């Protein structure tokens, strides 16, 4: 399965959340590969705590591979190379977790026929090796999004299952922006149709994920004044209504990750150690990430319309 | 004391990529022939004994490159690399690129017509040590840009064949590709073919250094394809057995994971079946140690036991619930 992680705006939580989902799928036993297609700022490796690759690798990364400068993009075995205490040993029953990093000085590049061909080859190869291939795309209607839409429109990828996760924050502007990215005139659906995708099928392969959602009931806000608490509840209700109107509501919602103080401080994976032993991260965050990872492969969640 | 310079020697070198064919059903001889019909002007080779093996015509890629070298400079060399695709039992696809570095040194680059008359030959344009080229070629790091790289030629052909419209892109199980890089130097007068090393680097690259009496690149490449095929089979089976969590509680899941192996892989093991006598010694060495077939047989036995154990219904209702 190919999973494309997109967002309209930068800094929404796309990389951190999708990395955590990849990690949780691997814990559940899937072989997982994570591709850093954020050509502008390839920083996914930082989340996995891989030394030397936190801003992409010096050579052999994805950008130069797609431009035909080498045939084998560099792979990082996260279980073997991560410096994170909890990741250094592969838990029994878990699957592989492989990161394919970007190039340090990547930047965007023009997409020609050859780039698309290489992208198709890469997806086909990784899909035949891994259960789940997560592709972290740069924000907005970027080159990366265009290339992926073009690649998945090719006949060779027609039978490969592709799913999209669109991440957004839980604010008025972010909800509207996420709607635009998917359904807008220059959105993913329109862009896909232009390239030969079936409109209905593409639309139904897209789900939204709300990241860093403040929960008015959370103990974090237990001591705020009543008026403020009331106000938060009202905002939450208004946003829920707006999301439903814009077709970002229940049917198209795949997960909701609470605002997590640990993630506000640091881009990282939330391990069970963080939640159960040192208790620095909240149980609800772990729960939400686990549910999102399960929903990703739950056919029922993808049949809702 | 350094050993005496053996003088100019022929070096054969190449790289094999091995992958499952991404199709739900193994291809028949007919469709396999269509798949590998890379050049309309030349025939696909097909043989059905002892198993189905289909070989594409060779393609040539012109190269004007540097030779790899561990210590010395990297001499320039010009010529062509041959590449072909091989499909075994309609299920495992290999691409194999190889060349012969001719002994002796040309002084300047000749017109392409000269090289096309010598398909698969590469002519160095400066002095070099055969040993040094071998070591440089087998060093596990990715070969630097501009250096002779049969692997990338094989990789391109592999991707091309794997995208063919005959394939439904649904492999019966998940598996990776393997890369095997090889060299062959001439064996001593009257000596048999032998293997000097077989290593697996951290990045998965297999390297094989051979000594062969025959300097027929195609025959030596075929031996290496056979090694690569069986190495891939063993690697893939090991990975799939590990994934299936053999011995864990969930019988149905284990069976579902093992079934495709029984259907698609177990019958493919036939080491050395097509290797000519002159090269057979290499397999004999590998069978002694590390003992590929021993490891394969024991894995196969485990799989068969598990499948039998989990499919045979119990004759008595001993599974009373507690
Ligand atoms: N659930 C959360 N709670 C609190 N902070 C979060 C949460 N998820 C992500 N963050 C934080 O938000 C910031 C942006 O997240 P991230 O880097 O994942 O976003 P992004 O969408 O990938 O951004 P970019 O477009 O710059 O790549 C990070 O500092 C991250 O730690
Ligand atoms: Mg990011």
UniProtKB/TrEMBL annotation, chain A:
Presence of keyword Ligase: no
Molecular function per GO: ATP binding; ATP hydrolysis activity
SUPFAM superfamilies, sorted: P-loop containing nucleoside triphosphate hydrolases (SSF52540)
Any one GO cellular component localisation term in the record: cytosol
UniProt-listed GO biological process terms: negative regulation of cell division
Keywords: ATP-binding, Nucleotide-binding
Domain of life: Bacteria
NCBIfam families with a match to the protein in the record: SCO2523_fam (NF040564)
Annotated protein name in UniProt: CobQ/CobB/MinD/ParA nucleotide binding domain-containing protein
Organism (species): Actinacidiphila rubida
Source taxonomy: Bacteria, Bacillati, Actinomycetota, Actinomycetes, Kitasatosporales
TrEMBL record, chain B:
InterPro entries: SCO2521-like
Highest taxon in the source lineage: Bacteria
Name under which the protein is recorded: Uncharacterized protein
């Amino acid at each position: 399965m190919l999973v494309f992680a997109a967002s309209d705006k930068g800094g929404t939580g796309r990389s951190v959340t999708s990395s955590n989902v990849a990690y949780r799928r691997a814990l559940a036993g899937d072989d997982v590969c994570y591709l850093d297609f954020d050509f502008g700022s390839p920083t996914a490796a930082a989340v996995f705590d891989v030394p030397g690759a936190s801003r992409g690798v010096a050579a052999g990364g994805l950008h130069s591979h797609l431009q035909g400068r080498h045939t084998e993009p560099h792979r990082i075995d996260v279980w073997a190379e991560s410096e994170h205490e909890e990741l250094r040993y592969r838990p029994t029953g878990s699957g592989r977790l492989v990161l394919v990093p970007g190039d340090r000085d990547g930047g965007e590049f023009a997409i020609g026929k050859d780039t698309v061909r290489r992208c198709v080859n890469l997806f086909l190869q990784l899909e035949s090796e891994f259960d789940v291939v997560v592709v972290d795309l740069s924000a907005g209607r970027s080159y990366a999004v265009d290339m992926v839409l073009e690649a998945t429109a090719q006949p060779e990828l027609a039978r490969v299952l592709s799913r999209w996760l669109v991440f957004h924050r839980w604010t008025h502007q972010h909800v509207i922006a996420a709607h635009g990215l998917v359904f807008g005139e220059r959105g993913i659906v329109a862009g896909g149709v232009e390239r030969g995708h079936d409109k209905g099928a593409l639309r139904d392969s897209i789900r939204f994920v709300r990241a860093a959602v403040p929960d008015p009931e959370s103990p974090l806000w237990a001591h705020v004044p009543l008026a403020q608490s009331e106000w938060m509840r009202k905002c939450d209700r208004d946003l829920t209504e707006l999301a439903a109107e814009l077709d970002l509501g229940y049917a198209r919602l795949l997960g909701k990750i609470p605002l997590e103080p640990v993630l506000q401080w640091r881009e990282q994976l939330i391990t069970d150690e963080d939640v159960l032993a040192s208790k620095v991260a909240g149980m609800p965050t772990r729960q939400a990430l686990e549910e999102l990872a399960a929903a990703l492969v739950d056919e029922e969640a993808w049949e809702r319309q | 004391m350094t050993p005496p310079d053996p003088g100019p020697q022929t070096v054969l070198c190449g790289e094999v990529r091995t992958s499952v064919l991404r199709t739900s059903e193994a291809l028949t001889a007919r469709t396999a022939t269509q798949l590998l019909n890379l050049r309309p002007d030349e025939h696909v080779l097909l043989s059905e004994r002892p198993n189905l093996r289909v070989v594409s015509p060779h393609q040539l890629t012109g190269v004007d490159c540097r030779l790899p070298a561990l210590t010395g400079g990297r001499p320039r060399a010009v010529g062509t690399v041959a590449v072909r695709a091989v499909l075994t039992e309609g299920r495992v696809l290999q691409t194999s690129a190889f060349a012969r570095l001719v002994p002796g040194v040309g002084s300047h680059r000749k017109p392409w017509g000269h090289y096309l008359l010598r398909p698969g030959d590469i002519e160095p344009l400066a002095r070099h040590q055969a040993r040094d080229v071998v070591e440089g070629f087998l060093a596990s790091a990715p070969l630097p840009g501009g250096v002779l790289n049969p692997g990338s030629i094989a990789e391109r052909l592999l991707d091309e064949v794997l995208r063919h419209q005959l394939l439904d892109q649904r492999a019966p199980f998940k598996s990776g590709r393997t890369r095997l890089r090889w060299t062959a130097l001439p064996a001593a007068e009257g000596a048999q073919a032998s293997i000097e090393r077989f290593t697996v680097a951290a990045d998965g690259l297999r390297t094989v250094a051979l000594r062969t009496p025959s300097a027929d690149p195609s025959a030596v490449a075929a031996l290496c394809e056979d090694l690569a095929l069986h190495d891939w089979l063993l690697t893939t089976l090991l990975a799939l057995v590990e994934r299936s969590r053999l011995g864990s509680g969930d019988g149905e899941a284990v069976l579902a994971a093992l079934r495709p192996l029984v259907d698609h892989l177990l019958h493919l093991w036939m080491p050395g079946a097509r290797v000519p006598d002159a090269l057979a010694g290499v397999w004999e060495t590998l069978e002694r140690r590390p003992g590929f077939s021993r490891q394969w047989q024991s894995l196969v036995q485990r799989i068969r036991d598990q499948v039998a154990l989990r499919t045979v219904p119990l004759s008595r209702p001993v599974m009373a619930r507690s």
